[in-house]
## 1
Amino acid sequence: MEIELLRDLATPNSAKILLCVVDGLGGLPDAETRRSEMEAASLPNLDRMASDSVCGLTVPVGYGVSPGSGPGHLALFGYDPLKYEVGRGVLESLGIDFDLRDTDVAARGNFCTLDADGLITDRRAGRIPTEETTQLVERLREIKLPGVELILEPVREHRWVLVLRGEGLEDGLTQTDPEREGVVPPPVRALRPEAERTAGLVNDFIEQAQKKLFEQPTANGVLLRGFAKHPDFPPMPEFTRMRTGAFAVYPMYRGLAKLVGMTAAPGGGNPKSKVDEVRAAWDDFDFFFYHFKPADAAGEDGNYKAKVAALEQFDALVPELRSLGADVMMVAGDHSTPAQMAAHSWHPVPFMINSTLGERDRVNEFTETACLAGALGTFPAKEVLSLAMAHANKLMKFGA
Amino acid sequence: MEIELLRDLATPNSAKILLCVVDGLGGLPDAETRRSEMEAASLPNLDRMASDSVCGLTVPVGYGVSPGSGPGHLALFGYDPLKYEVGRGVLESLGIDFDLRDTDVAARGNFCTLDADGLITDRRAGRIPTEETTQLVERLREIKLPGVELILEPVREHRWVLVLRGEGLEDGLTQTDPEREGVVPPPVRALRPEAERTAGLVNDFIEQAQKKLFEQPTANGVLLRGFAKHPDFPPMPEFTRMRTGAFAVYPMYRGLAKLVGMTAAPGGGNPKSKVDEVRAAWDDFDFFFYHFKPADAAGEDGNYKAKVAALEQFDALVPELRSLGADVMMVAGDHSTPAQMAAHSWHPVPFMINSTLGERDRVNEFTETACLAGALGTFPAKEVLSLAMAHANKLMKFGA
């Protein structure tokens, strides 16, 4: 349901909801064995849980849409990802655990290679190592702009984040990355009159940066895109009336959780230590977001076997997660990451919800094809939160 | 997904997509044998393809909506048929291969029978033969209207098309067909002030036509409806970044394809010769729309056996269609045409998509009931294009 309706119906109680997100959960059949990663993996604990749960498949964003981590998670947190968009600059900042302020404008930066005529010859400057980017970013920090503070942070390889901090800054700027080579990067243009000053400041920065990088062999230019301010989303605790806590090893997911108003436990650690942290914080929250990354990482690497192993690694944690005693426990994915594609995909993602209020279905394995027969059918991921709250008896009747 | 998002995500590559539309594909069980036309037909090639594809059922427009050819096809081309409407006047013009200009206003005309008091006694003038309509249309062509060119074309039986050509013409007119007998046909009224002049011209035409037909025994009146201009839809090649080609025997389907910006191969020929034309044009397009009419024609005739035979005729073409080597090949229907109903129906239509990126399902027959177990579930036909482009790797990731 829409957030507005959820806000009307939400009513607090002491029930606990645990959302386990296995990043990149779904997959595709292997060409030879015709079995998907989930089918090939030995997942006794998930299978047992499935036989005891209501199953189905979630459509992360829409038919044919392969989502990034942002929209994939926002949907599971109850936000329509087509309505609640997060700019790339903000996502990159979340990914390095940078604390954006509401008035900041953030952008994703790339070092690139330009030829003598200023044409782009490599948009990624040969993917220079992170160490080199760190040194170059250090030099760009010397740049001064009138009336604003300039913050630069290296990310990985040729990538970094640019943040402009000050009053009256606006997003709504075109990107300088033409997304192809052989052309001169265009200057930033304001898409709204209010953003004119910010556009001017960014172009000033680019000009100074180009001068500082002039003698570099490969990384002698900069490309900027995804200018964005911290979005102003309705906070989950407000419209769900739940205390919400996030438990994730990586900064991107902690950042996404903070974006929707969750309290994020410190990063780092590993999937097992995060379970312990959930247990230790059991009295502090009503809704727990537990994030498990290795399945997506293996899928993105195109490594079928590693993905199978990652799924088995998660399966081994399931008894401990169940022993927490949540009233409603879900296993979901933000999107599929088939090893065959080595990328996020649009395919619907297996899902299950365990509680005392679930209808019975005949699914007793946790795989893509088995979940097709689940009582939840194939449904939009943005409905997961509503379903969870309903199963936890946290929603009042609609209408008299 | 919406066309706006598709435009943002579309990225060209060399993959080929083949959409085979079996017009009126789905059916209903026969009262005695309890088997639908698809179940009764021997479809070995489609069954084999199903076992190798992802299956499902498409809802052409919405629950309970039996679509005409226009909305049925527009949905498969990615257009929400409730948002992108084509007036009947335009559809009739497409059906006779008439080249409408952007400023033309077209309407569907019927000859009807009026009694001495001007009341309608037969809305179809006894379905006079096409030859008679052709002669009567010839007489109506003598009518002159100030400042506009008048174009009349016979269609079939009592039906014809009226086109007003000139500057400043507007649609948004009420129909003169009251859709019942025993009443006087009302004059045309403008629904918008800009259409007042056009309404006046049409009423002038009707008055002159009535005089010219006065002495006819049956066809002594005219009824007009579906006043419409050529709609201005976003063209498929623009928002999909694909070169799109249409291969259809009948003008209506070539016309619908042209309406969305496809290049339409010449009409005529037969289902087999159209396959040859697709093969000959293989290098010219990225997206091929192949139209197969006989299943719908047999269904509309209420001829169960003929529909079974038409499906078998299509099945025999499947090996050749598959041998074209499309990266993504689909078999779809624009709607069901159950022989039992002798009409288009709202029933969801079997659908399959064949590619290397499809998830596995357990469907190994191509029938209405078998497709219910498909991994695609039952989904809106307007999502077919997004799915096809995703399976062809022609869509970028949404969000970071």
## 2
Amino acid sequence: MKNCIVAQSGGPTAAINASLAGVIKGVLSQKEYGRIYGALNGITGILEGRSLDLTELFQNSENLDLLKVSPAMYLGSCRYKLPDMETGAEDYQKIFTFFENMDIGAFFYIGGNDSMDTVDKLSAYAAKIGSQVRIIGIPKTIDNDLCITDHTPGFGSAAKYVAATLLEIYHDTVIYNLKSVTIVEIMGRDAGWLTASSVLARNGYSPAPHLIYLPETAFETEAFLKDVSSLLAKQNNIIIAVSEGIRDKDGKYISASSGAVDNFGHSQLSGAGKTLEYLIQDRLDVKVRSIELNVLQRCSSHISSLTDLEESFCQGQHGVSLAAGGNTGLMVTINRTSSEPYQVSYGSAPVCEIANRVKSVPAEFISPQGNDVTPAILPYLRPLVQGEPDIRFAQGIPCYLPVPHLS
Amino acid sequence: MKNCIVAQSGGPTAAINASLAGVIKGVLSQKEYGRIYGALNGITGILEGRSLDLTELFQNSENLDLLKVSPAMYLGSCRYKLPDMETGAEDYQKIFTFFENMDIGAFFYIGGNDSMDTVDKLSAYAAKIGSQVRIIGIPKTIDNDLCITDHTPGFGSAAKYVAATLLEIYHDTVIYNLKSVTIVEIMGRDAGWLTASSVLARNGYSPAPHLIYLPETAFETEAFLKDVSSLLAKQNNIIIAVSEGIRDKDGKYISASSGAVDNFGHSQLSGAGKTLEYLIQDRLDVKVRSIELNVLQRCSSHISSLTDLEESFCQGQHGVSLAAGGNTGLMVTINRTSSEPYQVSYGSAPVCEIANRVKSVPAEFISPQGNDVTPAILPYLRPLVQGEPDIRFAQGIPCYLPVPHLS
């Protein structure tokens, strides 16, 4: 009986450990693999031979339950882009030598778009060298921007955090009897899904956020100032949800961008909220504040979505079934069969159809003026934030699974 | 039978509505007052004759329970500094005419240091004109900087948020196998209590925050850089908790201060975290990020401290007893009789001994190097963050009491 290995990569979410728990549970219960190893710091852990044997630790169901609700990556992460096999053969040789030495039959990679690129390359290489190691991708990203799958693990929890927080900011803001503008900057470089989910803070009495700007629509400074001014003429406190990735019609980011780029060539963004704060300060005579939700929107496991955690767990388990069934080069997908009542099934798609593409918020979910979402997005978003996991507290703070030594 | 009126003032907390609920419950159950009114937007609502009759609405215990867990001020707030009675007689006349017209026997003002100044002035004026209106202050401030009382309503919830969030940031940060510094800026202009409470994130496996800087100690840039460098020589990810109010030995704020001041003459701060981020970027060759917890630390009711909410409620009730007993010019206090087991009793103190003074973190709670707190602070802090209120969720987001129309 072969062993298997799992790793996590990319930016953290509140649900990426739920997927890891699903993989572990799948391996332990399906008994298709002998031991389950965890590579530390994603693919770099395999390149450097750093891994843990997870098999015994998670026989204990309490550890597994705790893992399910713990934020970020239990196994650590990396942002390493695997070179093409033509130019970086050495990496591929190292990885498959590791697989051989550890008698690995399947590799599960939990990650976002860039990690799916790694799954794609490794499965192509395996085919080329005739390796029987199955390579399966399990999605995660708070950005919800992977193609084919209905939504991504981690998105629902981040969306729940964003909506709950916007509602709380509404309560915090509405108390003063004077005009004010509050800008909340939300993550999402290319896709506005998470910013769009702020609409869920509108709960019958809260009209916040009053305006929503996504990267899918070209941002026009003058139209924005006009939107804000006309609302201020009618009411006191305006709350604006804005994606970090908003751009003008020429594609230039509305932010105090440093011009730096990360390993994947993405612009390092910061400050769309701050930039708009300064703009309003400069052009409109009104109190203005910006709030950057920062990493809090992806790591606040204490307010994660139970639906998200359960689906993430199931996607981990499904990945094991796919590998055990002889599949490779696939990413687990979630297919929505109904929104009311909410029903899903799990499937898969060739990872080459998913990697390096982006699923944007479609036009029918964005208002014609580009300053709001439409009600059509609600049945899509609403089910994803439902339910609250049972988070235990010790000494007044949440109980999570201690992270192993990662370096 | 006389009526009474209650108002809320200053910055929001997660517990200021629990105190309001306590006042309402006290009035409804003690039957010393006929009707209970709520002035909108603090003392300005009395000056402008804007108030609500709360008597019927909160006969409904479900509304009262919802009020108890709702963030910020149900009745709205203000930042109005009452002038001295010599120069601003008109304000005082308006207020006491309002009291007379509404047949008010007691006024409960829930607020921080500046609101206690108002309580002090109004009770002195009442004495001067021979008014029988009882003026009682009920404290609140996340800053925990009021004298005499053991701790302030709202602090425990904010401290719980800060500690839980620091723990989650630790999980988020520790995943990368590279050197990084994360700076978390925490509210507290003059007193470092809230920043100090970040120590509660150290839970056995989390050493974060590795460094803690309070406004009570003069901040030295070179010592700070040395602290960070020597930690980085030993480990990968350093998390630093820093108060927005840190200053150098000359009392100059370590921040990108605009030099602006608010109505009370306080410097408007922003950016101690950002300033240190830029400093590290400039001087140390390491990845650095700063996170400003911003208003989230005071309005995230979904993770408030049950101990804090219950004590805030009791302090509201106790305020009603004080007024009914014929007292005036007092602030409700909480007296700790034991830390283990945690036991408190409620008392009062003349508000003139509290207003316009600040209780700093004492020297024995701060490390000699000024870059950490001492273990001696733990028995003080720990009981205040215990317990989680039962927050209901509807459609995936928290249920709070809708705010009335405030303007």
